Amino acid sequence: MIKTQIDRARRSQGIRRIDLAYVELASSEVARDINRDVVLELIRTKQPIARADLSRWSGLQPSTVSLIVEQLLKEKWIVEGAAAKRPRGRRPTLLSLNGDMVILVADIRPDQAVVAVVDLNGRFLSREALPLLSDPARGVRNVIDCMERMRARHPERSFEGIGLSLPGRVDPVTQRLILAPNLKWSDYDIKKAIEQRIPLQVEMDNAANACLLSELWFGRMDGIRNAVLITISEGVGAAILANGQLVTGKSGLAGEFGHVPLYPNGLQCGCGRSGCWEMYASSRAALRFYAELAPKAAAPLTIRELLNRAEDGDRKAVEALSRQAMFLGQGLRLITTALSPDLILLTGDLTISWSRFGPIVEAELRSQALAGVTPRLIVTTDAELARLRGAGALVLQRHSGYHRSAHSPAEQKTVSKRRSSPKTKILEKAGR
Question: Does the model's pTM come out above 0.85?
């Protein structure tokens, strides 16, 4: 009977391969951390919830749950609320995330930065946009000034940290921006500059990874273990979820599909290569297509203006955006062939008019498919909020299981020293 169950499990799940080069025995501290992650995640998703229900849902002993809850209360991650009504017996006190604990977040883009204050439930208390300067020192200084103003507006709140969403790749160990062709800030230590002015820990990551974390933390990813998220803006970014784990690769460079050449003899990209996918599928590409199609027309200054022209019946605008959609679909075919995800999420400018241009993307994705059913496409239309919430999730997922599994033991020690706040098991959502 037992052998039959094991065989069935192996057939349905596969035998997990353990890489002995990176194996690390679980200590009691690691076990406590994992239990803490589970309890905090359950409180977040099922709040308000009683201690007894936490024990039932988690499978942990009531005494273990009680110790974890007391620690989370002490650190002010959670609060006690009203007592639950029961038909008989003692009325338990319900637990929720602490609405007074907030995070400073910023979405850095080549032309502007958006700074906000977000709470643990993803609600925004303040938000402000400011132009971004090409000089990194002055640009970061303006972002810091804005953050300090926002802190002053909310003296009653407890600020846990700072999260940054960036249009480039961030080394997960050094937390330095190492590839940002559209921003040109790679030689500047953004994290150090902010932490010298504001006494809060800074967490940074690529905008696509931040958006995927946002979907995992606040969105629609329950039960999904293999997915890709694509951001469409000045460039094209990608984040990869494989077997329930966020894939970062060496130095955090995994997922740079925007800089995979579709046309080796095509236009030169800011990364130095020619014919990169983002040169044809990004918002900048759509603006360039329009300039080529209507050279005598007044050029739209922003992608939003081009989208508005398309909605107003400008045929050249429609054609320019249709070209972008076609190239976007071609790149998604490449991603589908390489990764075979269950789901592809798209966020960014073009998704605003998805009812018009989405069918072009979907048709291109389905054409010349190798085999089987193509991935589902889902769009998130407010890319700015996704990036900001994702920047908050970067702070919340410090010390997550992703960081333990993504690095070698030596790198894990470096990351562990850098990240000392309570952990939240965001990526476990993808495994349930």
Answer: no
